[in-house]
Amino acid sequence: MQGIETWEKVKRPIAEKAELVSYTKEHPQWLHFGGGNLFRAFHAEIAQELVDKEEMRSGVIVCETFDEQVIEKAYHPYDNNILEVIMHEDGELEKKMLNAVAESFFCHPLEEQSYRRVQEIFENPSLQMVTVTITEKGYALTDSQGKLSPIAIKDIEAGPDKAVHTMSILANLLLHRFKKGAYPLALISTDNFSRNGQRFKESVVQIVKGWEEKGDVEAAFLDYLMDTEKVTFPWSMIDRITPNPSQTVLDKLTAQGIEGLSLIHTDKGTNIAPFANTEQTHYLVIEDSFPNGRPALEVAGVIFTTREIVDKTDAMKVTTCLNPLHTAMSIFGCLFEYQSIAEEMKDEDIVSLIKGVGYKEGLPVVEDPEIIHPKTFIDEVITKRLPNPMIPDRPQRIAADTSQKVAIRFGETIKKYMESGKSEQLVYIPLSIAGWLRYLLGLNDQGEAMKLSPDPLLDELQEQLSEVTLGFEGDLASILRPILANQSIFGVDLYEARLGEKIEHYFKQMIQKEGAVRAVLHETVQ
Predict the structure, then answer these.
(1) Pick from 356, 364, 376: which is nearest to 417 by CA?
(2) How far is 457 from 442, CA to CA, in rounded Å?
(3) Residue 132: DSSP 8-state
């Protein structure tokens, strides 16, 4: 990013880059896995504020395990600097130059030099915490039937030094830290799903247990991971809508004299840029469990509390006030070929749907975490955040990996209704699930082929639905039952929840003809 000195209205960093990089190399404190847009628009901003306020002398180190071109094209050419663009509702683009990223690596066994450098960082006793944003599927080691995935099996067989799954790479790096001195460390999943710390720990431990059974690691290493005075996996709740970099934002930056920027589309499908566009609203709540100390993140607005409060706060957002709404509207947004979340918010049927999911079905069973009030939160989501025309978010992005999300976003609320014996009263959530099955047919509401978003179970689910076409009059129950009864997808057997037949009914109506999805949605929510 050349010519920054001529850029107008860009908040510049206070920290001297060279000094920051030099200190970080000797005294690493914070390492982050997942160099995508959420990190660039949120974590990097937190790090910048701490560095500029002299609350942290060390910068943050970024590791990417999936897409090497993220590092090659979005970090290294720009000296690891990031232009953060906060998109206000009134059209203002608030711009901040972030220079707190000190180093960045593609962390993979095939990149020997980079991999060894990251191992050295893990071996350094000064390292206090590792944060992670790799999306929910990045922790998955099993398929929809609960069996170990091929990559997990291969990693266990290959042993620590050749393993390539992110969970396995982290397990290997922790092994290096253990061998060097069993130094304490906190590893924090800041990905957008409930009880993320628990799942993070379970995934790492599962790999390590496989290695232990083969004799690749000693039992003492597993003891180290299980000792909370040594290693912790704090739970967190994170919230900041961070869509892919937008051409519209790029055009506005260029018009303001900020030149030399472009959108980057990697060979592996990552959309990134030298800038990261995001919304103004943000929350990060973390369980305060850091055995080796931590930076003063609260200075940058991070909320520290107990695991119980984190869990309640996360459940409020992920199962009630934001994520279920996002998933429901993205499903129908794709079917109706919307290209913008903000445009969807002009659709009365879709707004009625998400109000039903949130206010009518979610709020009655959500626990108030007290640090953030659920009703206030959902009001802000529906009246300010989702309708913000400056946020270039798309339903197609939100619809990615839905199979990995529905157990939390819908399943947890269904469980609460099951406990009270009232699950059959649910309408908006089963309607959304039926909409997702209709989406999986790969046809929009007009019966035209549409491109589906990536999902680890996409091929498997489409195969199960392969007989179904518009106007299908065969035995739907026998086709849908294996899917709707799958607890690994929904968190519950939807027939035991007394919702299976209702979803079958909605789905049958939705496949009758072109335009049927709109007709069912309108009739049900209005």
Answers:
(1) 364
(2) 14
(3) E
CA distance linking residue 509 with residue 224, whole number of Å:
55
Token pair 């973390």: residue:
286
| One-letter amino acid of 423 | S
Please list the residues that pair with 106 across neighbouring strands: 64
Separation between Cα atoms, residue 50 and residue 132, nearest integer Å: 19
pLDDT digits (tens, 9 = 90+) for 277-312: 999 999 999 999 999 999 999 999 999 999 999 999
- CA proximity to 437, closest of 482, 398, 474, 473: 482
* Proportion of the chain in helix, strand, coil states, percent, rounded to 5: 50, 10, 40
| Long-range contact pairs involving 329-332 (C-beta distance under 8 Å, separation at least 24) | 329/353, 329/354, 329/386, 329/395, 329/398, 330/395, 330/396, 330/397, 330/398, 330/399, 330/402, 331/395, 331/399, 331/402, 331/432, 331/435, 331/436, 331/439, 332/395, 332/432, 332/435, 332/517, 332/521
- First vs last C-alpha separation in the chain: 50
Contact 233, 354 (CB under 8 A): no
Structure tokens of 424?
A: 């059959």
pTM above 0.90, yes or no: no
- Give the rounded percent of residues in the chain with a pLDDT score beyond 90: 94
DSSP 89: T
Where does the pLDDT of residue 145 fall: very low under 50, low under 70, confident under 90, or very high at 90 and above?
A: confident
| Exposure string over 54-75, b if 16+ CB within 10 A, otherwise e | eebebbbbbbbbbbbbbbebbb
pLDDT digits (tens, 9 = 90+) for 413-469: 999 999 999 999 999 999 999 999 999 999 999 999 999 999 999 999 999 999 999
